[in-house]
From TrEMBL, chain A:
Chief place where the protein resides: membrane
Gene Ontology MF terms in the entry: ATP binding; ATP hydrolysis activity
Record-stated family: Belongs to the ABC transporter superfamily.
SUPFAM superfamilies: P-loop containing nucleoside triphosphate hydrolases (SSF52540)
Subcellular location, record wording: Cell membrane
Gene Ontology terms describing biological process: response to antibiotic
Coiled-coil ranges from the UniProt annotation: none
Domain ABC transporter residue range list: 2-236
Membrane topology value: Peripheral membrane protein
The name this protein goes by in its record: ABC transporter ATP-binding protein
TrEMBL record, chain B:
Single GO term (MF): ABC-type transporter activity
Species, as recorded: Nonomuraea glycinis
Keyword NADP: no
Domain ABC-2 type transporter transmembrane: 19-346
Recorded superkingdom: Bacteria
Transmembrane segments: 20-38, 150-174, 195-222, 234-260, 272-290, 327-346
Signal peptide per UniProt: none
Entry keyword Cell membrane: yes
Main location: membrane
Protein name (database record): ABC transporter permease
UniProt keywords, alphabetically: Cell membrane, Membrane, Transmembrane, Transmembrane helix
């Protein structure tokens, strides 16, 4: 299990802000093996800073990161796969060679590195570009190479900062499949994203950061349960006043009556609606992650 | 260790495949080769075309074995005069008593002809003159010209190679820092491995360059006959050059990596490196001065002071005989300086290379925990 606890980080300020910027204000969460953790939060909330601290690129002012119950060491991190927010590759190096090189740096043998590189190139649809220099690739394809670099050595943990940004829908699916596979193999995966539908679709659990603090975390279901549920009923050809005495608000457009309510006896409401007219819709509205997010960071 | 070697290997294989590397290697090889043939063109053996009218040829070869003489005979003085004025011959001996030339005679040739003429006449009269014995009681100056020549070429080669490779190190460091690839590199290898691998890799490329220059230079010297002028101990000089290149390069390259890790953009490299380039230039100038006066006090003292010694000592070793103990002390001091630089450079690099953005101040890096 990867545990992040009470991380604090203040960046030194310039002459205009001598007190600096508090980027992380005691952030904590944990990711279990085989869990896909979606890390969401507004711009500047502290996602990248957290990931950089986990990868040892930055030092936290206080707090700790532990892996399998022990403080995280350099040797542990060597087995992690990391995709930084600011992409970086050797521009003049060929895509395939670059992926192989990183495989070797992480300790793979020559043949294993080549095998893994070929495999990833194929999975990510880059086989034809194997011998192209990185600078000659489109942005999205460079991004795929960057992902392959993070994945090549079969990492024990994956830390990916906005891995889906800039990918076309096909590549998104390809990457999602690869990540789900790794996850099923027992790898904890943390990725940050602003594409909340994607996070909702892929992640077992979600953490919402705001201003350096974790404001909500848990499975999407848990987060939904914590939100108030809204019952939505649509009745056609009903007489005005059919919902008098029922909780909630009714809005009418033409002969369409829409009742929205967050409380009350749903069975009683259903009976009344059936009596009043033709029930076109009756259901509990699931708040989307986007709504949960907006609520949480508000 | 593995990481170090992988990084070094990548540096070598990327550079060696670039056109720039191959072209510059070819150009230096051609230049050095041409240099070895140069003495032949400017300073080849003297050649004279001489004529006779009603005279015996003078046995000039006996007195000047290095020079070549070609003789022609003319029927009369009129024909000879025309040939002299046309520049076909330099001097014509007429009737064994006078020499005609166009303007003043080449002084060496004049002295030579006079003395041989006298000797033949005296010999004919039965007088034998023992030639003077020549003996030098000073230092062996036979090879002085060749030694100075070799030293001048060496200092140039060392300077160009060191500054070239050192700039490559600096640009490589900034490339990795600026592109942020260093973030993922450092999740796989330690900073000292990344830094050391780069320095080793580019150093090996420098050595390949240097070895090519030495092989081509020596080969061409043998081919051109210039090697005949080589001073004794040429093997020692060549070995010294390799050793001093390694020491000097290690020193300057480590500092270059440390300094360049402070900036994030290629445009800033020149600026942040300027103190170091100035130091390399200063070493070069002192070394160049030493080619002129390799036994002088300045050259002798500076050949012990790192990092100047890395260029001055090999120059002194080529230009004159340097006692072994002096070389030993100088190598020892330089090796100490390299060790110190490595410790310092690795620390600065490690602390600065992940701090992207604005230029990091050196003092700040040193003060940080
Ligand atoms: N090197 C730095 N120096 C000063 N402040 C920084 C530095 N890096 C980050 N910050 C500040 O720390 C805060 C958190 O930034 P961080 O990059 O972690 O946000 P984020 O959640 O990744 O945002 P985004 O969604 O835009 O990527 C921001 O206010 C940012 O301005
Ligand atoms: Mg970010």
């Amino acid at each position: 299990m990867l545990e992040i606890s009470e991380l604090r980080k203040r960046f030194a300020g310039g002459p205009d802000s001598p007190e600096g910027k508090l980027a992380l204000d005691g952030i904590s969460f944990a990711v279990r093996p085989g869990e896909m953790f979606g890390f969401v939060g507004a711009n500047g909330a502290g996602k990248t800073t957290t990931m950089r601290i986990v990868m040892g690129v930055l030092k936290a002012d206080s707090g700790s990161v532990s892996w399998q119950g022990r403080p995280l060491t350099y040797t542990d991190r060597q087995k992690f796969g990391y995709m930084p927010e600011e992409r970086g590759l050797y521009q003049k190096m060929r895509a395939g060679e670059q992926i192989e090189y990183f495989g070797r740096l992480h300790g793979l043998s020559q043949s294993a590195a080549k095998q893994a590189a070929d495999d990833l190139l194929q999975r990510l649809g880059l086989t034809e570009r194997r011998n192209s220099s990185v600078e000659s690739l489109s942005l999205g394809n460079q991004q795929r190479v960057q992902l392959a670099v993070a994945l090549v050595h079969e990492p024990e943990v994956l830390i990916l900062d906005e891995p889906f940004s800039g990918l076309d829908p096909i590549a998104v699916d390809a990457l999602a499949t690869v990540l789900q596979e790794r996850c099923r193999g027992g790898v904890p995966v943390i990725f940050s994203s602003h594409q909340l539908e994607l996070v909702e679709r892929l992640c077992d659990s979600v953490g919402i950061v705001s201003a350096g603090r974790m404001v909500a975390s848990g499975t999407v279901e848990d987060l939904r349960a914590a939100e108030s549920r809204t019952l939505r009923v649509v009745v056609r050809e009903a007489l005005p006043g059919w919902a008098d005495g029922l909780p909630g608000e009714v809005s009418v457009t033409g002969d369409r009556h829409v009742l929205l309510t967050t409380h009350g006896d749903d069975q009683e409401i259903l009976r009344r609606a059936v009596k009043a007219g033709r029930v076109e819709h009756f259901g509990v509205q699931q708040p989307s992650l986007t709504e949960i997010f907006k609520e949480a960071v508000a | 260790m593995n990481g170090l070697m992988l990084v070094a290997r990548r540096e070598i294989s990327t550079q060696i495949r670039t056109k720039a590397f191959l072209i510059s290697l070819a150009i230096t090889a051609v230049l050095v080769g041409a240099l070895a043939f140069a003495p032949k063109f400017f300073d080849g053996p003297d050649e004279y075309t001489l004529g006779t009218v009603n005279s015996q040829q003078l046995p000039l070869e006996a007195a000047a074995p290095d020079a070549k003489f070609e003789w022609r005979s003319f029927p009369d003085e009129q024909a000879a005069t025309k040939a002299v004025l046309d520049g076909d011959v330099e001097a014509v001996l007429v009737d064994g008593t006078k020499v005609i030339t166009d303007g003043e005679i080449d002084s060496q040739l004049g002295v030579l002809m006079q003395s041989i003429h006298r000797e033949t006449k005296l010999g004919a009269a039965g007088v034998r003159v023992e030639p003077l014995q020549m003996e030098s009681v000073g230092a062996d100056t036979r090879y002085e010209a060749a030694r100075t020549g070799i030293a001048v070429v060496l200092v140039l080669v060392l300077f160009m190679l060191i500054i070239g490779q050192v700039m490559m190190v600096a640009m490589g460091v900034v490339e990795e820092k600026g592109s942020r690839i260093v973030e993922i590199l450092l999740s796989a290898v330690r900073p000292w491995q990344l830094l050391g691998g780069k320095i080793i890799g580019l150093g090996v490329l420098g050595l390949i360059n240097l070895a090519t220059i030495l092989v081509v230079g020596l080969g061409a010297s043998f081919a051109s006959g210039f090697a005949a002028d080589f001073p004794p101990g040429m093997v020692g000089i060549v070995a010294g050059v390799l050793l001093w290149f390694i020491l000097g390069y290690a020193f300057f390259a480590t500092l270059a990596a440390a300094l360049s890790s402070l900036v994030s953009r290629q445009e800033e490299v020149g600026n942040v490196m300027s103190p170091l380039t100035m130091l390399i230039m200063a070493s070069y100038f002192v070394a160049f001065y030493a080619t002129n006066d390799p036994t002088g006090t300045v050259a002798t003292i500076v050949s012990f002071i790192p990092p100047f010694s890395s260029m001055v000592m090999p120059v002194r070793m080529a230009a004159t005989e340097v006692p072994m103990w002096q070389v030993g002390i100088s190598v020892g001091l330089m090796a100490l300086a390299v060790a110190g630089t490595l410790a310092f450079g690795a620390k600065v690099y490690e602390r600065a290379v992940l701090r992207t953005g604005a230029r990091v101040k050196l003092g700040e890096v040193l003060r940080a925990r």
